[in-house]
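Action item from last week, closing it out:
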Amino acid sequence: MRQFSVFIPDGDNHRALKVVRSLAYGGCRNIYILADKNRNVHFSRHCKSFLLHGEYGKDEERLRQMVDISKAFPIDILLPISENGIRFVNSQKKILQKYFRTALIPDDRTFEIARDKGLFHDFAVRHRLSVPKTIRLADYFTDSSVLNHFSFPVLLKPFIGEGGNGIKLIPSEEQFQRFFADKVNPNLYKHFLIQEYIKGWDTDLSVLCKNGKILACTVQVPLVKHGGDFSFGKIIRFIRHDEILDAGKKLLSLLGWNGIVHIDFLIEEKSGDVKILEMNPRFWGSLYGSVSAGVNFPYLACLAALGESFSCPRYEKTIYAELSNMEKLFLLLGKKQSENISLKDTDFRYIIRDISLFQKLKSVMSAYIR
């Protein structure tokens, strides 16, 4: 197992702990974090050093601290994990490249196409990719007849968002018009899209790329969701799906994508056609699931940053569940959950390797969670 040291400059992100534990699960022993004092990642025993912002939120202070950290610690790889982290590293890359070897990340233009649903749709249409019919809501405010091109129900989606936040399903044209007639300030919705609603099955493709070529990937489908129809999966299954992979390869090649990205697809119920919904250019909430299936994206991202070559890992068609602590306790006590979930299908294996209090239990449970 290749050893290296990693610096995560955006440990403020709520997914930082998952990235840290995934790196440690892959064998990484030297992980440095820059964050504010309010994040739970600083409790992780896997962090070699945890550093705090002096003036949290100020870019110049963050940059100064990053440079100081590069001089104080033997860091091999700079690994931004969130959208804000990637944008910051891109904005300061001329300075940072003097001090760090950075993990693969997309350039500014490509990154913005991926994170902004409006720009992404324009790109997809321009390159004749299969996407749902979509227009900007601003077009409706200019000419309401654009609704004639849609069958209801339709979706309202914010340009930028995650986890289904802000998405609204509007069943009829009458309700659509009433919805905006009731709004005092339609400018609140100027950064929204109108998108056709298609019945089908959500399917996600997670990838690590270099210059548009896939180095590692997993495909997953939600079996149970956390909330409504637009939320992320609580219980997911990893599958193989050639059409999803082919559509992803075409998209990523056109973008010349670098780094990690999580792509949302929809398989249409009636036709079976694959539609690309959106891209999320950051690490994802089901990251532990990918690692459990056999693809440790944070670790592989670091290997790629070091110029190491590796074969595209073959992942297992397994199940992973994001359960609450109470649900995991019920499993420990022998209470069955849906989809025949067991503790080894949750984040339990990552938690027990991290919390010092559980070190004695680790040896007892090792046979079960291996």
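Closing note: Confidence is low (pLDDT under 50) at residues 359-368.
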